[in-house]
C-alpha cells in the first residue's frame, strides 16, 4: 500500500509567511528607536524618565500570561475539546474557556496602554511633543492595533466553535493559527518593552 504524503497545512504556512512580513514592519519601528537613541541621547534620557516602568511591567506580565492561557486553549483544541469537561474544574477547561480568559487578559493589556497614554499626555508628552513622543506612540500604538486584531480573531474562533455542530480539525487549525499570531504579538511586545522601558 502506497504511503500518503503529509503536506503542511496551507493556512498555517500562509500565516507564518505573513508573520515574517510583520517582523520586517516592526524591525523598521525598532530602527527608529535606536536611531533616536544614538542621535538624541539627551532627549531620550529626558523622556524615558516620564515612563511608568512598574505599571508597564505589570501590564507586560498580563500579556505574557495571556500567551500561556492561549496555549492552554490550543492544547484543548488539539484534543478536539471545545468546552469544559464536567467535574474537572479549570484543568478541564476547553478551548472556548481558555480563549475567553485570553481575550480578557488581552483587553486588560490594551486598556492599560490607553491609561498610560492618558497619563503621559497629562504629564506633557503628547504625540506632537517631539520625535521621541512620536516614535513612542506610533510604535506602541501599532502594537496595540495588532493586539486588538488578535482579540477580534479570538472572538471569531470562539464564535465558530459555538456555531459548528462538530468541532473538527478544521476548527482546531483555526485556533492554532490564531495562537501563532498571538504569540508573535507577545514576543514583539517583550522586545518593545525592553527597548522602550529599560534601554536608558
From TrEMBL:
Q: What is its main location?
A: membrane
Provide the coiled-coil residue spans.
none
Give an example GO cellular component term for this record.
plasma membrane
Q: What biological process terms from GO does the record include?
A: aerobic electron transport chain
Q: Which PANTHER family match?
A: CYTOCHROME BO(3) UBIQUINOL OXIDASE SUBUNIT 3, CYTOCHROME C OXIDASE SUBUNIT III
| Family statement | Belongs to the cytochrome c oxidase subunit 3 family.
Indicate what this protein is called per its UniProt record: cytochrome-c oxidase
**Organism encoding this protein:** Microbacterium keratanolyticum
Per UniProt, what is the name of the gene that codes for the protein in this document? ctaE
Amino acid at each position: 500500500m502506497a504511503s500518503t504524503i503529509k503536506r503542511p497545512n496551507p493556512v498555517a504556512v500562509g500565516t507564518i509567511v505573513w508573520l515574517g512580513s510583520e517582523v520586517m514592519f516592526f524591525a523598521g519601528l525598532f530602527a527608529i528607536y535606536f536611531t533616536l537613541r544614538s542621535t538624541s541621547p539627551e532627549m531620550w534620557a529626558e523622556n524615558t524618565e516620564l515612563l511608568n516602568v512598574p505599571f508597564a511591567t505589570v501590564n507586560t506580565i498580563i500579556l505574557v500570561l495571556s500567551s500561556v492561557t492561549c496555549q492552554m486553549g490550543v492544547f484543548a483544541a488539539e484534543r478536539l475539546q471545545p468546552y469544559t469537561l464536567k467535574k474537572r474544574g479549570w484543568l478541564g477547561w476547553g478551548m472556548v474557556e481558555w480563549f475567553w480568559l485570553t481575550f480578557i487578559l488581552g483587553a486588560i493589556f490594551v486598556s492599560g496602554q490607553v491609561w498610560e497614554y492618558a497619563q503621559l499626555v497629562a504629564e506633557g508628552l503628547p504625540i506632537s511633543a517631539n520625535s521621541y513622543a512620536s516614535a513612542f506612540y506610533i510604535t506602541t500604538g501599532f502594537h496595540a492595533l495588532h493586539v486588538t486584531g488578535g482579540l477580534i480573531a479570538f472572538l471569531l474562533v470562539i464564535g465558530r466553535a459555538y456555531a459548528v455542530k462538530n468541532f473538527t480539525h478544521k476548527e482546531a487549525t483555526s485556533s492554532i493559527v490564531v495562537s501563532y499570531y498571538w504569540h508573535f504579538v507577545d514576543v514583539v511586545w517583550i522586545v518593545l518593552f525592553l527597548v522602550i522601558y529599560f534601554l536608558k
